[in-house]
Amino acid sequence: MLRHHPHSPISSTSRRRLARWLVGLHVRDVERDLVLETLASTHGNRTAAARTLGMSVRTLRNKITEYSADGIEVPPPDRAFAEFEAGPR
Length: 89
Fold this sequence. Notes:
This protein is mainly α. The chain has five helices and no strands. It has a domain at 26-86: Arc Repressor Mutant, subunit A (Orthogonal Bundle). Helix 2 (27-41) packs across helix 3 (46-53) and helix 3 crosses helix 4 (57-69). The chain is globular, with a radius of gyration of 15 Å. The chain starts with 11 loop residues before the first helix and ends with a helix.
């Protein structure tokens, strides 16, 4: 099965089809799952995740604090990945 690239545009038809799967769920829960999945996909990079989600880093940090207080495991920043991305020093 082909996976949709996270940065490629999605058609309005596909968005509506996806939305049908989400009917009945609380927006708060959908948002939390989206934030957590985005953090996982950015290897815990808060700046990249906030940019992808279209929110400020401060808003993302507030959400992470809230999730952690609720006992939800939040993907930590992957220091090894960040160093790999930065390249040799």
